[in-house]
Amino acid sequence: MSLREPQSRPGSQKAGPKLNGTEPGYPANGNGYNSADSSTTLFSTASSKNDLPDLDIPSKDPTYTRRQFLKWGIYGVAGAVTLAVGVPTALYFINPALQSADSGKILVDLGTPSQFANQTTPKAVLADYKYTDTFKPAEGSKQVFVRALKPNASTPADFEVLDSTCTHAGCTVSFVASLNKFKCPCHGSIYSVDGINEAVAPKPLHKYSVVLNNGKLAINVAEVTA
């Protein structure tokens, strides 16, 4: 069996335009390749496959645009506002922990020793106080009971100062002279003249340390001893 090449049917192919060899891109050497054009094409193809970025040329334009300027301006303002608000807020909470022991004193004058020298029964005194630290102004008043522990008392150790707040539910107690005891009107708590709890209340009345401040008896209302 013999093989033969397929023959084109008549009229199946159209004849193209005749070329005279002067047209652009026509092979000039007669072998299908133009030597000058082919070398250029091969070089450019190889270059495109192994093309590397030039490191001397920045990938982005280093010149700031108006949008970038505005963006960094907004960041700067936001940072300044954060510092202006955040630092005082942080110090508000940190400052008490960094204060010295003396900064926790709120001394309140009660009167001269001679005013209470023979006050051997508890006397109610309203202690008004006001102080201001770096961030927290505060003021208030506290009722206390002052009593001389002996006649002609003259030194801070000769006086006792009790808080008037009941240790049961926080009501204000009063001293009943006929009973020589403190009583609470809310739930009937009873304390001795020394503030010892005798009924209902779970703890004694709080006491304050007494000091002499500019010739007057004074207590630190920020601290109780019992």
Structure description:
This protein is of the alpha+beta class and 226 residues long. It is 21% helix and 24% strand. The protein has 2 helices and 11 strands; from the N terminus they run ααβββββββββββ. The chain has a 4-stranded antiparallel sheet with strand order 2-3-4-9, with no helix packed on it. It has a 4-stranded antiparallel sheet with strand order 5-6-7-8, with no helix packed on it. Strands 1-11-10 form a 3-stranded antiparallel sheet, with no helix packed on it. A hairpin with a 4-residue loop joins strand 2 and strand 3 (137-148). The longest helix has 33 residues, at 66-98.
Which radius of gyration do the C-alpha atoms yield?
Answer: 50 Å
The percent of residues in helical segments reads 10-25%
What is the CA-CA span between the terminal residues?
127 Å
Report the β-strand fraction as a percent range.
15-25%
Helix/sheet category: alpha+beta
- Summed over residues and divided by their number, the pLDDT gives a mean of 76
Order of helices and strands: HHEEEEEEEEEEE
Shape summary: elongated
Spatially, the strands of the biggest sheet line up as 2-3-4-9
Task: Give a nutshell description of this structure.
The protein is of the alpha+beta class and 226 residues long.
Chain-wise SSE layout:
Blueprint: H1 35-49, H2 66-98, E1 107-111, E2 123-132, E3 137-148, E4 159-163, E5 174-176, E6 181-183, E7 190-192, E8 197-199, E9 207-208, E10 210-213, E11 216-220
Antiparallel strand pairs: 1-11, 2-3, 3-4, 4-9, 5-6, 6-7, 7-8, 10-11
